[in-house]
Amino acid sequence: MIEYIFKLIITFTLIVISCNSFAQKIKKEKREIQEIKLIFKDFTNNNNILQINKELDGTLILPTHFKNYKNYFKEFDKNGGALLNFTPSKIHKLIKSDCVYLNYVTLNDSNLLFIEKSWFPNNKVKTLTDSARKLYKHYSQDFMKPIFFRNYKRCFIAFYYSDNLYSYFLKKKNKHWVYDRVYKIVAVD
């Protein structure tokens, strides 16, 4: 009987821990989506270095999903080696803990994050499927999922556009995302 009660307590404890972990994951995902929406808003309204494709009538042209960094690495492997190996840098304002986190996230990212039209209630949105994107390869962007760090004060974002891979750091300034600096731009065959 004592053994049964002990197993029951352990099971209940594991369920509570699992629920708590799941709730934290959902909260983190909601925060990431809020920040992603803000990035799109900030870079659509301003003529900044990170351009979001827009038609003449103001319709946003977006991919159906963010690509993962495993695909990003494959592109670089085809062209002579991996691009990303973050190291501490005064130029990019990266400290060791930033680099450890960024390297871990980019190496272990395998999920696609699907872009929802409901994220942009004030814009007309057109999403391009992967097959449509292949037709418009030189006119469309494939975004990698933004990586937020330093408590959502900095962001690393990369995208593929017209045979080039671009990667940038963004920073949060006055509750808006602004361009910080280029990380790397590499031509892809």
Radius of gyration computed on alpha carbons: 20 Å
Along the chain, the helix and strand elements come as HEEHHEEHEEEEE
Q: List how many beta strands DSSP finds.
A: 9
Number of helices: 4
> What proportion of the residues is helical, as a percent range?
25-40%
Structural class category = alpha+beta
Unreliable spans = 19-24
SSE inventory with pairings:
Layout: H1 2-45, E1 60-63, E2 65-66, H2 69-78, H3 96-108, E3 113-114, E4 125-128, H4 130-135, E5 141-143, E6 147-149, E7 154-161, E8 164-173, E9 176-187
Parallel strand pairs: 1-4
Antiparallel strand pairs: 2-3, 5-7, 6-7, 7-8, 8-9
Which features would summarize this protein structure in a list?
189 residues; alpha+beta; 5-stranded antiparallel β-sheet; two-stranded parallel ribbon; 9 strands
